[in-house]
Design brief:
With 393 residues, the chain is an alpha+beta fold. 24% of the residues lie in helices and 48% in strands. It has 8 helices and 17 strands. The strands form 3 sheets. The chain has an 8-stranded antiparallel beta barrel with strand order 6-7-8-10-12-13-14-17. Strands 2-1-3-4-5 form a 5-stranded mixed sheet, sandwiched between helices. Strands 15-16 form a two-stranded antiparallel ribbon. Helix 2 packs across helix 3. The chain is elongated, with a radius of gyration of 31 Å. It starts with a helix and ends with a strand.
Length: 393
């Protein structure tokens, strides 16, 4: 069963190993260039429309493009705003409003909460910034298309001076984002990317009936480097479903009385910390695979008892130390395959399955005051599955 499970995981990862998280492995300069040409043409058309309606040296305000959610959308929105700024500055026909003042205005509750695109607050915001006109826009995604709407309004009359709607195929936007915008217009794309992950997990011990299944919570800090490489630090804590497990039972005679001694153990919780490395592979449009190898340290806490189950017997025997709880620790290594959904979005989801090898074998040995004793040992390795959410900061 273990061999089959591991082979299945390896097959899944190798199937998609030739694909890339943001686009195909083969880069396409022509695609990146066509997207940037479209943005540049939009900026030129907007600047020309404003020239036709405003006097020279008029002040223009350029607001951030609203609606960007995924990293690709944010990159395209950032690029369009920067290209607009460069076009207007290089032409020298208009002046630009103070960017710091404009950002303060856009952060005002009435404007920030409603947004400018649908609230018709753009002329008011531009006027507060001392501009004669304001350029603003919205970016959105519909299935495999990214839509860009660009507008320019006269801040005095409220009339619209420029109105344009364009679309870009998502994969082309992704390729442009990956290849060109990284170095030019997109500070949001610079690595590393920090993510926090929260999950619920289920762990099944392969050969440890005392623990059975454990459920728990996990927290991870994920640092993505060079787009496809993940460095992961994770902490998990789990509690078992099962109760007491009897691993030994025997009859003993002492002072003419028969005793049935039952040796029992109960896991209370297991905690672990691990460092891992993963490689992100695009599988489908919004799905990614990430095989992960990890290593760390595991600690298990448990209670145990050695009970006299006879009804009319002398006081229960105990082990010499008198302890009723203990813990064990061990280094471990693991392998998982993560299925990621919309990983480039601010909030994404994942499902993970894998196997964990624990190097030390758990042992419990005891001896009663009468000299009778027993011992229990088991492996702590097992299968794990988890699911949760990832927050991109």
């Amino acid at each position: 069963m273990k061999v089959f499970f591991l082979l299945l995981l390896l097959t899944l990862t190798s199937t998609f190993a030739s694909q890339n998280i943001y686009a195909e492995d083969i880069t396409h300069p022509d695609i990146a260039g066509s997207v940037l040409n479209l943005l540049s043409n939009e900026a030129s058309a907007a600047e020309q429309a404003l020239r036709n309606n405003l006097k020279q040296n008029s002040v223009l305000a350029i607001a951030a493009i609203e609606g960007a959610v995924t990293r690709e959308e944010r990159n395209i929105a950032t690029a369009l705003r920067e290209i607009l700024r460069e076009k207007i500055q290089s032409a020298g026909y208009f002046k630009l409003a103070d960017e710091g003042l404009l950002e303060e205005i856009l952060d005002l509750p009435d404007i920030f909460d409603k947004g400018m695109f649908s609230s018709k607050l753009a002329p008011h915001a531009g006027a507060l910034a001392g501009a004669s006109a304001i350029i603003y826009g919205r970016i959105s995604r519909d299935k495999n298309i990214i839509a860009i709407a660009l507008r320019a309004d006269d801040t005095k009359t409220g009339s619209q001076l420029y109105n344009s709607d364009k679309t870009i195929p998502f994969l082309e936007a992704s390729e442009a984002s990956k290849q060109y915008l990284i170095e030019n217009y997109s500070p949001d794309y610079r690595t590393p990317y920090i993510r926090f992950s929260g999950s619920m997990s289920l762990f099944n011990y392969d050969k440890n009936p005392s623990a059975s299944n454990e459920y728990g919570l996990g927290l991870s800090l994920i640092c993505d480097v060079l787009m496809n490489h993940s460095i992961i630090a994770e902490f998990n804590i789990r509690s078992p479903f099962s109760g007491w497990y009897s691993y030994d039972s025997a009859l003993y005679e002492h002072n003419g009385s028969n005793y049935e001694i039952s040796s029992e153990i109960k896991n209370t919780y297991t905690s672990s910390f691990a460092i891992g490395y993963g490689y992100i592979i695009r599988a489908f449009t919004e799905f990614y695979f990430r095989p992960v190898v990890k290593g760390g340290y595991l600690s298990m806490s448990y209670n145990y008892r050695h009970m006299n189950t006879s009804l009319f017997a002398e006081p229960l025997p105990t082990d010499n130390s008198g302890k009723v709880s203990d813990s064990c620790a061990s280094p471990f290594a693991g392998f998982t395959v993560d299925l990621l959904y919309r990983y480039t979005s601010p909030v994404s989801w994942f499902f993970s399955a894998g196997y964990t090898w624990v190097f030390n074998v758990f042992n419990d040995s005891w001896i009663t005051k009468t000299g009778r004793g027993s011992s229990f040992n088991t492996e702590l390795s097992g299968y794990t599955i988890s699911a949760g959410a990832v927050l991109y900061l």
